[in-house]
Amino acid sequence: MAQKKKAASVVDQSLPFEKVLVELQEAINEADTEEVRADLERRLVAEREALYRRITPWQRVQLARHPQRPRMLEYTARVLEDFVELHGDRALGDDPAMVCGLGRFRGETVAVVGQQKGVTTDEKVRRNFGMAHPAGYRKALRIFKLAERYRMPVLTFVDTPAAHPGIEAEQTGQGLAIAQNLLESSKLRTPIFSVVLSEGGSGGALAIAMADWVAMFEYAVYMICPPERCAEILWRDVEQKELAAAALKVSATDLKELGVVDSILAEPGGGAHRNPEGAAMALSEEIARFLAGCRNGDWTPERRQAKFQRMGAWAELEALAAPEVADAGVGSG
Fold it and tell me: Could you name the CATH architecture of 62-309?
């Protein structure tokens, strides 16, 4: 009975492109015999595998935003022991959108930083849907420095649409806080591991993801801005969001090919929300490999800096100006 209720709850939160899966699940729930049920379950598995092999970039965004995807604190509860949260930026206060603290991974002490979007409506509002204010980024930086001082590896969990865009965030130094995190992360003398759980948006994500090793869940997205906003900027039409999602190269596969992320964590069939334990196990094994590299001395600030300097493609063109402008020497010197 408990399994049927769990399946129904996932069906209730199904996405538009999952209609065929919903219909098969309903048929399974109503099956009269075990033989019919077994046949339908085999069909469901096959349909799910086929569907998720061909999902579009926009469908991937929808999946990354699924309300039942596991959040940061659900992962830390599964992969860490003795997690203790630390509060405050030592300047203005505490930001619930950014969760920081210390914990142990298989007996090894680690520093932890990440965004918590929230699960219930009240928690989402309290945590500002994972969109941190400057105090959140300053708190993260405080933990980075603490980890460096005591030689603890840092684990960061990225799950945010973006940094908070409100006027109060700008008044208290949002841009400066993010820039300081980027600068200090680039030279931090302790290893940094980062994982994109669901949605990694803009500087809000990058401020805690300038890491030696960046992992990304298979159906997560990592992008400079939401597709809706990109569509408004480029085409003045939010309905072009599907085109924008494709242009942004949001998928883990695209980003690994571009060198933005280092590894892709496979998700259980249908996404991490269908099997949080399986997703946590994949993350746990990735963290274990990273920490083994820490013990071997694989990660250094110099290597981290070189990695980010390699990102992107540059081309130098000699004659961008019109010939008459070049002859006149405009812009020379």
Answer: Alpha-Beta Complex (3.90)
